[in-house]
TrEMBL record:
Ranges for domain NIF system FeS cluster assembly NifU C-terminal: 227-289
Known role: May be involved in the formation or repair of [Fe-S] clusters present in iron-sulfur proteins.
Pfam families assigned to the protein according to its UniProt record, in alphabetical order: Fer2_BFD, NifU, NifU_N
SUPFAM superfamilies found in the cross-reference section: Fe-S cluster assembly (FSCA) domain-like, SufE/NifU
Domain NIF system FeS cluster assembly NifU N-terminal residue range list: 4-131
Organism: Pseudanabaena yagii GIHE-NHR1
Origin superkingdom: Bacteria
Cofactors required: [2Fe-2S] cluster
Name used for this protein in its record: Nitrogen fixation protein NifU
Keywords of this entry: 2Fe-2S, Iron, Iron-sulfur, Metal-binding, Nitrogen fixation
Length: 294
C-alpha cells in the first residue's frame, strides 16, 4: 500500500478537469493537446489546453490518463495549477511543483509528476509549432533503450530534482527499471553531476573567501576612499534630481552621509540611501556596512 497524502487521495477519488476539450471555432481560441507515455509501458497522459490566443494564456486544461492513483492526482493537480497562466509561466511549472502541490508523492511514483510536466511541455511546444516534444537539451545519445531515455534527459532530471541514486532516477523517469543494462551509464551521469556540483561549490566558496579577504584587508583609509568612489558614482544621479550627498564620517560599519538639496527633504531619501548607496557599498566594499543620514 502506497503512502499517499490526503490531497493525492482526494484528487484520485474526486479528479478535477478530467476529459477532453472539444475543438472549437471560437474566435481567438486554440485547442491543443500534448501526449506523453505509452499504454504499453503502463502510464500514458494526454493533456488538453484551451488557449486564449491574444493573451497567450490558458483558459482551460483537462486530462485523460491511463495510469495509477498518482498519475490521476498529478494530472488533476497540474490542470488546476496552470489555468490562468500564460504559456511562458506554465512552462516554468516543474514536476517538483506538481509533487509539492500534492503534499508529496511516494518516491517510486515521482515519474507521474514528471509525466505531467512533460505532457504540458509537449502541448505547448505543439501549439507553438516546435517539432520536438521534449526539452531540446534532452536530445542526445539513447541511454535506456527499454524506456527510450537519452543521456541528456537523465542528466536534466538528476540536476532538476537533485537525485543522487540510480533508484531515484528509475522512480522519476523509469530509466533503468527493466533489463538494467543502462544502470552503469546512469551511475556515471550521477557521478559527473555530483563532480560538477562540487566544483561549482568550491568555486563559489573560493570567490567568497577572496571577497572576504579583500574586504578584511582594507585599511581605514582604503575603506573611506572606496566609499568616496561609490558616492562619486551615485552623485550625478542625485544632482540630476536636484540633490547631492556628502560623506560625513565612517564609524566602524556605520557610514554617515549628509543628504543635500532636494534629497534632504525627499520622502524617498531612505530608498536612495538603501538602494542607491548601501547596496553598492555592501557589494563592493564591505557586506556589513550600514548607511545613515545625519
Ligand atoms: S536499457 Fe535501461 S532498463 Fe533496459
Amino acid at each position: 500500500m502506497w503512502d499517499y497524502t490526503d490531497k493525492v487521495l482526494d484528487l484520485f477519488y474526486n479528479p478535477k478537469n478530467q476529459g477532453a476539450i472539444e475543438v472549437t471555432d471560437e474566435r481567438d481560441i486554440a485547442v491543443v493537446f500534448g501526449e506523453i507515455g505509452s499504454i504499453a509501458c503502463g502510464d500514458a497522459l494526454r493533456l488538453h489546453l484551451k488557449i486564449d490566443v491574444p493573451t497567450d494564456s490558458i483558459l482551460d486544461a483537462r486530462f485523460q490518463t491511463f495510469g495509477c492513483t498518482s498519475a490521476i492526482a498529478s494530472s488533476s493537480a497540474l490542470t488546476e495549477m496552470i489555468k490562468g497562466l500564460t504559456l511562458d509561466e506554465a512552462l516554468k511549472v516543474s514536476n517538483k511543483d506538481i509533487a509539492d502541490y500534492l503534499g508529496g508523492l511516494p518516491e517510486a511514483k515521482m515519474h507521474c509528476s514528471v509525466m505531467g510536466q512533460e505532457a504540458l511541455e509537449a502541448a505547448i511546444y505543439k501549439y507553438r509549432g516546435i517539432e520536438i516534444e521534449h526539452h531540446e537539451e534532452d536530445e542526445g545519445a539513447l541511454l535506456c533503450t527499454c524506456f527510450g531515455v537519452s543521456d541528456n534527459r537523465v542528466r536534466r532530471i538528476v540536476i532538476e530534482n537533485n537525485l543522487t541514486t540510480v533508484e531515484e532516477v528509475t522512480n522519476y523517469i523509469k530509466a533503468g527499471g527493466s533489463c538494467g543494462s543502462c544502470l552503469a551509464g546512469i551511475e556515471d551521469i550521477i557521478a559527473a553531476v555530483e563532480k560538477d556540483k562540487e566544483a561549482t561549490t568550491a568555486r563559489v566558496e573560493a570567490e567568497l573567501t577572496r571577497i572576504q579577504q579583500t574586504s578584511r584587508k582594507l585599511t581605514t583609509v582604503q575603506k573611506i576612499t572606496k566609499i568616496q568612489e561609490i558616492l562619486d558614482e551615485v552623485r550625478p544621479m542625485l544632482i540630476a534630481d536636484g540633490g547631492n550627498v556628502e560623506l560625513f564620517d565612517v564609524d566602524g560599519d556605520i557610514v554617515k552621509v549628509i543628504l543635500k538639496g532636494a534629497c534632504s527633504s525627499c520622502s524617498s531619501s531612505t530608498a536612495t540611501l538603501k538602494d542607491a548607496i548601501e547596496v553598492r557599498l555592501r557589494d563592493r566594499v564591505l557586506s556589513s556596512l550600514v548607511v545613515e543620514a545625519v
